[in-house]
Give the backbone structure.
Amino acid sequence: MKVGLQTYTIRHALAEDVAQGFQQAQSMGFDDFELARISFDESELSICQSLNIRAYAIQDTLQSLRKHFQKRCRFMHELHIPLAVVSVISIPAILGSQKAILTFCQNVNALAKMYESAGLQLAFHHHDFEFRVRNGRLKFDWILDHLDPGVGIVMDTYWVQKAGFDPLVWAKKLGPRLRGIHLRDMQKPPGKRDCPLGEGVVDFPALFKEIDCNRVYTVIEQNSQTPFLDVAKSLAYYKTLL
């Protein structure tokens, strides 16, 4: 099994120096990435090409993926990246009604057709908002019902756990729609922040017994003040699962 790095983790380092941030991650042994919190412009494309960056996917907001469609497609084609991931549900859908959720799904479905026309695929990344109940059902169930079957799901173990659910159960529920997994742990009670893999409550050994890593990509993600230190801890733990 191979694991990549979600670059939200090192967003501050990339903001200071894109090339140096990627090089530091590569020096730790990361060859593959899910690219987030970069501008996807020509200068960053050139840096990624010069460093032979490989990526499973890019992650960006629905608005940016739509507004900068040609720019995102060029970036993805040049680096042979097959998948664009919608990073977050819309604010009206977070706060609003079932109608707002359905509108969000319609917008994602339309965006998926745009990317499909360019030979690319689309997926959706959740947070814990989707596990709130609306009209007697989880918002996530409404979303799964109304997203086109071709729109994949990128699961985040931290957000599932924080919402009070089991990532393994949800990985099984998503089945073939599961395209990727953000590997994040959650502190043992009473804390609920994320923490290096293996230091919290997520049952990663059980999860890895069930997922097909030839079909589902995995990336380590940390929301940390010491990202490279915590990523090193997470990577060391990950290797114990092999």
